[in-house]
From TrEMBL:
It comes from Acetobacterium woodii (strain ATCC 29683 / DSM 1030 / JCM 2381 / KCTC 1655 / WB1). Pathway: Amine and polyamine biosynthesis; spermidine biosynthesis; spermidine from putrescine: step 1/1. The gene is speE. Keywords: Polyamine biosynthesis, Spermidine biosynthesis, Transferase. Signal peptide: none annotated. PROSITE patterns: PABS_1, PABS_2. GO terms for molecular function: spermidine synthase activity. The active site is at D155. NCBIfam families: PRK00811.1 (NF002010), speE (TIGR00417). The keyword Transferase applies. GO terms for biological process: spermidine biosynthetic process. This is Polyamine aminopropyltransferase. S-methyl-5'-thioadenosine binds at Q31, E106, D137, G138, P162.
C-alpha cells in the first residue's frame, strides 16, 4: 500500500510526497510532531501537519536566512535565533569564527529532541560551545532584551498556533529594542502567491516597516513550501542589504555553499512585479 504525506496549500490545492516510512509521531504541549522518510526528499519534519523542512531542500532556506545578513553586518558577534529548533540555522552560523555567542529560543523542547534523534543533518551543532538553548516563548524572551544582539534570526512556524505572536507589532518592536545600534533582523516572511499567504505576508511586512528604518524583502525557491516561492524579511537599523554587502570579505571566508553566493544575494532582492505591488499596498 502506498503512503503519502499531504498538506493543503489552499482549500483547493494539495501538495503530496510519497512516504517510505514514518520515523516519529508525537504530541507535545504545543504541537503535533512527525518525521517521515521519503525517496525524493529524504527525511522531513512536519509540525501540526505543515512542512518545516526536508533533507533535500533545507539548505536553501537555512543558507538564505543566515548568509544574507552575515554578509552584510561587518562584525556579527552575538546572534539570537527565535524558533529554529531543527538546528539548521545554528549549523550555518557556527561556520563563522567571528560569531562568539548564539542564543536559540525554542518554545518546544520536544522538537529539538526529535530533530537530534531523527534529523542529524540539521541538528548537528547544538553542542558547539557558543550555543545556548532556552526553552521559552520567543515573544516573552525578547521583552527583556535591550541593545544586546548584532543579529536576530526569526526562524518561526507560520502566523498561527505557537508562532502567531512572532508576527506581531509588539514582537518586531521588541526585536528592534533587543538589537544593538547597527543590528539586523531577518525573518521567514511567508509567501506571496496564494491569497491567504499573501495577506499574512502583507500584515507582517507592514508591522516590520513600521518598526525599522530599513526594511526589504528577498526571495528564494523552496520546492516543498506552498507555491515553491518563499520570501524573507531583512530589517535593519543601519545597513542596506545590497549597498552594505561585503562580497569580497564574505568570499574570502571560502565557505562552500550550495545555494547562496554573493551574486545571488543581490539578485534575491529583485522581486517580481506582483510581489512589489503587494508590498507597496501595505
Ligand atoms: N523552516 C521552518 C518553516 O518556515 O516552516 C521553520 C522551522 S523551525 C522547526 C520553527 C520552530 O519555531 C518550531 O520548532 C516551533 O516550535 C518554533 N516556535 C513556534 N512558535 C514559537 C515561539 N513563540 N517561540 C519560540 N519558538 C517558537
Amino acid at each position: 500500500m502506498e503512503l503519502w504525506f499531504t498538506e493543503k496549500h489552499t482549500p483547493s490545492v494539495k501538495f503530496s510526497i510519497q512516504v517510505d516510512r514514518q520515523l516519529y509521531c508525537g504530541q507535545s504541549e504545543f504541537q503535533r510532531i512527525d518525521v517521515f522518510d521519503s525517496k525524493e526528499f529524504g527525511r522531513f519534519l512536519t509540525l501540526d501537519g505543515f512542512m518545516m523542512l526536508t533533507e533535500k531542500d533545507e539548505f536553501i532556506y537555512h543558507e538564505m536566512m543566515v548568509h544574507i545578513p552575515m554578509a552584510v553586518h561587518p562584525a556579527p558577534k552575538k546572534v539570537l535565533i527565535i524558533g529554529g529548533g531543527d538546528g539548521g540555522a545554528i549549523r550555518e552560523l557556527v561556520r563563522y569564527p567571528l560569531v562568539e555567542h548564539i542564543d536559540l529560543v525554542e518554545i518546544d523542547e520536544l522538537v529539538v529532541a526529535v530533530c537530534k534523534k531523527h534529523l542529524p543533518q540539521t541538528a548537528c551543532c547544538f553542542s558547539d560551545e557558543r550555543v545556548t538553548v532556552h526553552y521559552q516563548d520567543g515573544l516573552k524572551f525578547i521583552r527583556r532584551c535591550e541593545n544586546e544582539y548584532d543579529l536576530i534570526i526569526v526562524d518561526s512556524t507560520d502566523p498561527f498556533g505557537p508562532g502567531e505572536g512572532l508576527f506581531t507589532k509588539e514582537f518586531y518592536g521588541n526585536c528592534y529594542k533587543a538589537l544593538k545600534e547597527d543590528g539586523i533582523m531577518v525573518n521567514q516572511h511567508e509567501s506571496a502567491f496564494y491569497r491567504d499567504d499573501a495577506e499574512a505576508m502583507q500584515r507582517a511586512h507592514k508591522r516590520i516597516v513600521e518598526s525599522f528604518p530599513i526594511s526589504r524583502v528577498y526571495q528564494a525557491h523552496i520546492p516543498t513550501y506552498p507555491s515553491g516561492h518563499w520570501l524573507f524579511g531583512f530589517a535593519s537599523k543601519k545597513y542596506h542589504p545590497i549597498e552594505d554587502l561585503k562580497a569580497v570579505k564574505w568570499n574570502a571566508l571560502g565557505f562552500k555553499t550550495r545555494y547562496y553566493n554573493t551574486q545571488l544575494h543581490v539578485g534575491a532582492f529583485a522581486l517580481p512585479n506582483y510581489v512589489e505591488e503587494l508590498l507597496k499596498d501595505v
